[in-house]
Amino acid sequence: MLGEASHGTSEYYRWRTALSKRLIQEKGFQFIAVEGDWPDCFEVNQAIKQDEMSAGSAARLLQTFDRWPTWMWGNWEIAALVEWLHQHNRNLASGQKVGFYGLDVYSLWESLQEILHYVEKQGDGAVKAAHKAFSCFEPYSNDPQEYAQAVAFVSEDCQDEVSEMLRALRRQPPTTTGVDGLGRELDFAAEQNALVAVNAERYYRAMLQGGSSSWNVRDRHMMETLTRLLDLHGPDSKAIIWEHNTHIGDARATDMADDGMVNVGQLAREAYGREQVFAVGFGSYEGSVIAGKKWGAPFEVMSVPQATRGSWENYLHEQLQGDNALLLSTELRSETALLNRSLGHRAIGVVYRPEFERYGNYVPSIIPERYDAFLFIDKTQALHPLPTQADEHTPPDMYPWTE
Question: In the record, which residues are listed under signal peptide (predicted)?
Answer without folding.
Answer: none
